[in-house]
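The instructor's notes for this session suggest beginning with a concrete chain rather than abstract definitions. Hand out the sequence below and ask the class to guess, before any prediction is shown, which regions might be ordered.
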Amino acid sequence: MYYLATKMMEEIMQALGGGPILILTFVFLLIISVMTYLILHIRPVMPYLYLSAIIQSRSKSMLNQGKMKQISEAKSTKDMLSMLSDTLYADESCENVTLSKMHKHFEEAFQMHLKEVYDLSPVQMRKLLDMYMIFQEASIIKMLYKVKKFKKPLDKDLVYPVGMITDKLLHKLINVDSIEEFCGYLFNTPYHKVLIKSHEVMEEFDTAVDNITIETIIKNLETLKIQDKQLVYEILDTIVDIKNINMSLQSLTRGNILPLITKRGSLDSNKLSTFKNIDELVTYLEKTKYKENVKSAAESYKNDKSVMHYDIELNRYLKSFIGKNRMLNPQGAFNVFSYIISLEIEKRNLFTLSKGVASGFSSQEIMGMVI
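After discussion, reveal the predicted structure:
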């Protein structure tokens, strides 16, 4: 806008031969165009400038491919921790650390930094981050429900207070004796209408919770006045697509139809439920924005028949999408929100790297599993 206004005024002055009145008019219009540009483009991101500077600084120490390759070659988890000294996950007390304690440390470091970002965020951004917390909240609910309903073991180091799950409520949910008591404590939450239904397999419950989670986030997002809202929607759609594709793959592998998320996503959830085998699903996905990643996953799948290759490649797509758009939108709400999603991906990679190193996998094997 500024450039166009300036160019137009120069052409007018040349055509009319200049003059004091024309020059004053030009200056006045130039000031108006600059002010308009500032109001439309700079003012909306002003509250984010300090936070964006911190994010830019912290992003430099995030794990890149080179750093992950170095970590994948570590001889022990102790060596791995020493390689994280210049990251958010530096730990001075790395003697005799177990894998479980490492994961707890990664989770605590992530939550601490998330709180720091939240505290520095403007009001509208905090509302968006509150929505992100719903994902974490739902994850804890799923984990605890699995323990109570399907008698799975619980790693207490990986459950923590978040969102509406306070310390007091978390303690109660961990220590209840029955699934009925568990559901009772969540009576006044959006999850109750899912909990009162009987779920024969865990995946049914997961999808039901995901539908409520996405529905709640979208409803709140519609009320927010933030820049780059469409990019935030695209992240949410990609997350839903990944969950639905993974569920479709599980359905085809097991031979039974599992429910999909219906609230968002760029792919037709009804269409995803119609395929008779993995090859049909892959053929369909190769016509979507995920085509290159799906082709790569299909090649790896041929070797060991593990559907995890698709999850890894689809999350690589998400990581790439976020990286490209953060470069184009270095200020504002999208930059902050996508940074948090990037941290979530980084945390997952740390879990994968630590498990791989502890299990004695080769560097090549570990790098094939990171995002």
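Then share the key points. The first helix runs from residue 2 to 16. Residues 37-43 have pLDDT under 50 and may be disordered.
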